[in-house]
Design goal:
This protein has 22 helices and 19 strands. The protein is about 45% helix and about 15% strand. The chain binds coenzyme A and ligand HC5. Ligand HC5 binds near residues 463, 476, 567, 575 and 588.
Amino acid sequence: MWGICSRTMVKVGMAKPCGLMKPCHLVKPVSATRVTGRYLTHQKGLPNLPVPPLQQTCERYIAALEPILEVDEMKHTNELVDEFQKAGGVGERLQRGLEKRARNTENWLSEWWVKVAYLEYRMPVVVHSSPGLVLPRMNFRDKQGQIRFAAKLIAGVLDFKTMIDNETLPIEYLAGKPLCMNQYYEVLSSCRIPGLKRDSVVNHAKSSRPPRHITVVHNFQFFVLDVYNSDGTPLTADQLCVQLERICSSSLQTNTEPVGILTTQHRDSWGKAYVNLIKDKTNQESVSAIQRSIFTLCLDGAMPRVSDETYRSTAAIQMLHGGGSQWNSGNRWFDKTLQFIIGEDGTCGANYEHAPAEGPPIVALIDHVVEYTRKPETIRSPMVPLPMPRKLHFNITPEVRKDIEEAKNSMNILAQDLDMRVMVFGHFGKNVPKAHKMSPDAFIQIALQLAYYRMYRRCCATYESASLRMFRLGRTDTIRSASSASAAFVKAFDDPSKQNTEKVALMVKAIKAHRSYTNMAISGQAIDRHLLGLKMIAAEEKLTMPDIFTDTAYGKALHYQLSTSQVPSKTDCVMCFGPVVSNGYGVCYNPMDDHMNFAVSSFNTCEETNAAHLAQAMEDALLDMRTLLERTPAAKL
Ligand code: COA
Ligand code: HC5
């Protein structure tokens, strides 16, 4: 495995714009996503995702279980793992199957991962899968300001789209290595489609006639808005403003059935309702227009009025699920890969359907758009009259009406259940851990382990997303943040019999262990996707499921009471997602140089969890860890 010095290894970020990047406002005809020369050469040069050695994964699996299992459980699992990996055992057979698959595919994992983690996962995409993103509050407070900002935002997305279409996006790097750029080609003009047992994703960017329109939803009514002039140039912000005004003034009343709320349903229910809905030709055409559109823009009505203190948490809820049927949950099409959300009161953000891409490409797009909206408008609009945006009609049969009612009910139950706390940690950011020569991400993860331990007096299986984009078509693997080293540290921290120097030594060890797990994960040597791959081979070859996968320890290892992700951005925004288990937390954080944004979620129906408590415990843990470092001079780090 390469490099251990974390200083040189980190960084997911845009490379400096390469010479190929063009100024923003040149005339560019709309074109299909041509995946051609430059991009293909880049993609071809990327390494294949490796299959880690079997023994290495087995050893690391046992090590990862130690902090979360009891001693007697460990004994049993040790035996199962020994049996699995012994010479001539089933493990070797599965490993060979996986290695064969790796030789014959571009990426042995990605297709499986999309299927297992998304398309065959049947919980609603809302809260359970699709993340939200909250932008800083904009300084408008009325309809006119909302429309003006929305127009600029659309123009900004089209500007980014030009870089995608022309393949002039700067290549990103992680730890000095170029990353797979494929996900950028999947986020626009695509949509998830519900199925009865399994969903699918369509991407119209790759069709011979790629879409030229976006969908706008206002007062639960959907419109098609063409965003290119007939000569292929994108509409200017002024032109878009005119069009958005026309949309808003023709949808002043919220008197329609909120068809969009159907997309919040459990996927099996939505799959059935979808069949009902598109039996009607008009409905079918309307749905298809949404699916084909470049993205969806949600012009929201009011959101609950709240104090400044809770504003960001309420805004996060609007981005995650829209607040329930009485607020904005019906003003969405949650299957759409990318939805921008703009409220009348300056609340802005996005929601995205996770199957086609990870957070970082979405965030890069949004960073670009925000920067674009801050620039003064420079181009003059052509004086041609524009066609009226087209309203999408839906015929609501009694059956569809019933489906909408059911969707409203379940959405409202889910909205009631989700607890969200956004915390802006203003005391320090990446600067403090860096000054102590520690990886900021590892510092945050270890603080989270401490926060959790203080609340529950035990460690839990913890998931952190690690990017696999160093490999062609790479998605993610899991960094298991609960380690033996983190357990030793959190147990010692509040122990009065321990000296500060010992605590610091344990902290350093835990942070180093985390950073080393991260390095292992991003270089394709973590355990979780490998174990999944072995299990998938067993299923494909119709073998009896090996004991290690039916073992309760495996279930416990996958019961992530802490599901976390670092999503950095240039803009001061907060990303959020729901917990992945009923008694767990979702923790998304954006570490900036001098502060950090956290969004912590949990479910109200679970008595043991409380988002605000964990957010508070997190703040305390970060501060206490800094204090310990400052009070322990000459700590040899
Ligand atoms: N001393 C001083 N500075 C250090 C350091 C040390 N020991 N270790 C790291 N740093 C610096 C880095 O140079 C980097 O500097 P920068 O702010 O100038 O870029 C910064 O600290 C951050 O590094 P670190 O905190 O270690 O994290 P990272 O940037 O390497 O990120 C992951 C770690 C796991 C988040 C990253 O590898 C990853 O996989 N990201 C993708 C996650 C993802 O896909 N999330 C969304 C899923 S949908
Ligand atoms: C806008 C950014 C949202 C981040 C979403 C994210 O981290 O998703 C994880 C994806 C993965 O494969 O690790 C899943 N998780 C939310 C359950 C951590």
